[in-house]
TrEMBL record:
Region listing for Disordered, in residue ranges: 329-355
Protein name, per record: Mandelate racemase
Stored InterPro entries: DgoD-like, Enolase-like_C_sf, Enolase-like_N, Enolase_C-like, Mandel_Rmase/mucon_lact_enz_CS, Mandelate_racemase_C, Mandelate_racemase_N_dom
Phylogenetic lineage: Bacteria, Pseudomonadati, Pseudomonadota, Alphaproteobacteria, Rhodobacterales
Source organism superkingdom: Bacteria
Organism encoding this protein: Leisingera daeponensis
């Protein structure tokens, strides 16, 4: 089997509700790039990447130029066994992992289709019938965030990410964490996420104010060293996100003692090939994982669900159905959350096929 054509679409995805985060970060309408790799066997593999602004060194408009740069390596290549081809791409174009993540997803889709197996079978086998989800709550007034938490709790959600720092008021952040914790009651996981938007002193003050509650903190500061300081000063468990982007950073977070959990994201790590290796390292280290991505719709969500489904329960904190937060749905038949949990698609490969009307006009075709 050989790759014969690369087609890409730029698809605007609009959040059902604008997400406000620390340091003025917002997520409203973002550009997702959808990729299809066609082969001479008649099989096609799908990938997607949706970098949100101000989060990673990534730029949605940079994806297609990167694809054009990598096209000579891809066209005519055998897609089966993604690791070998991704190694060639990494030598051909250094960096640009976010663009490579869409290619890697499409290669895994093709490999699993060629084997006639669902993708999770190639990523370690199915470890769970369905997986727990977390619900992300935009940083607005504390009372409104508590209402959103209650609504999600009524629908079966039991893990809640509370965005913090949008108004640079640490006492308001304390109120956000307190009200959400009180609203969902004992048991559910609640964690406050600054997205690197706090200094160590501010995060420590907020953390100490909620020490009596069952709360986890997520990436308050920009560096692992600062996060380790907050972890030690507050005694609260911590999840790393922005700082956890490859094998070396995972090891650094573990050694610093501030990585009770880690967010593994496809576009941060360059796709499923690298993310699977990082997943296995986290399992060895005893680190809980959130298997997710920056943003996206049904293709990205399907890739996450297959990796999450193949992850032993001892290492999986949660996963994410990104397509729940945005419109349009690229494949309306793709899985949706139910009672706070979600299952991977059925069928060979990723198990999703985007609707042509949702994609719109192709931006580029390389053959």
């Amino acid at each position: 089997m050989k790759i014969t054509r690369i087609t890409a679409w730029e698809v605007p995805l609009t959040s059902h509700e604008t997400y406000y985060m620390a340091e003025g970060k917002t997520c409203d309408t973002t550009l997702s790039v959808v990729l299809r790799l066609d082969t001479n066997s008649g099989l096609s593999g799908w990938g997607e990447v949706c970098p949100i602004p101000h989060y990673l060194p990534a730029y949605a408009k940079g994806v297609i130029p990167a694809l054009e740069e990598m096209a000579p390596v891809l066209i005519g290549a055998d897609p089966v066994g993604p690791d070998a081809l991704m190694e060639r791409l990494n030598k051909h174009l250094i960096g640009h992992d976010y663009a490579k993540s869409a290619i890697d997803t499409a290669l895994w889709d093709l490999t699993a289709q060629a084997a006639g197996l669902p993708l999770y079978a190639l990523l370690g086998g199915r470890a769970a019938e369905d997986m727990p989800l977390y619900h992300s709550i935009t940083c607005v007034a504390p009372e409104d965030m508590a209402r959103m938490a209650r609504e999600a709790h009524d629908l079966g959600m039991r893990q809640f990410q509370v965005k913090l720092g949008a108004d640079k008021d640490w006492q308001a952040d304390v109120a956000r964490l307190t009200l959400v914790r009180e609203t969902v009651g004992a048991g559910p996981l609640v964690y406050g996420d600054w997205n690197c938007g706090a200094d160590a002193l501010t995060a420590t003050r907020a953390g100490r104010a909620v020490q009596h509650l069952d709360i986890m903190l997520e990436q308050p500061c920009a560096t692992i060293a600062e996060c380790a300081h907050v972890r030690a000063a507050t005694g609260l468990p911590m999840k790393l996100d922005e700082s956890a982007h490859d094998i070396h950073s995972i090891l650094a977070g573990h050694q610093a003692g501030c990585m009770d959990a880690a967010a593994l994201k496809l576009s941060k790590m360059g796709g499923l090939s690298a993310m699977r290796r990082t997943r296995d390292l986290c399992l060895a280290l005893g680190t809980q994982m959130c298997i997710e991505d920056t943003w996206g719709s049904d293709i990205t969500t399907a890739a996450l669900l297959h990796l999450a489904a193949s992850t032993p329960a001892r290492g999986l904190m949660n996963t994410c159905d990104l397509s729940h937060y945005v419109g349009p749905r690229l494949d309306p038949s793709a899985p949706s959350r139910r009672n706070g949990r979600i299952a991977p698609p059925e069928g060979a490969g990723l198990g999703v096929t985007p609707d042509a009307d949702a994609l719109g006009q192709a931006k580029t075709i390389i053959d």
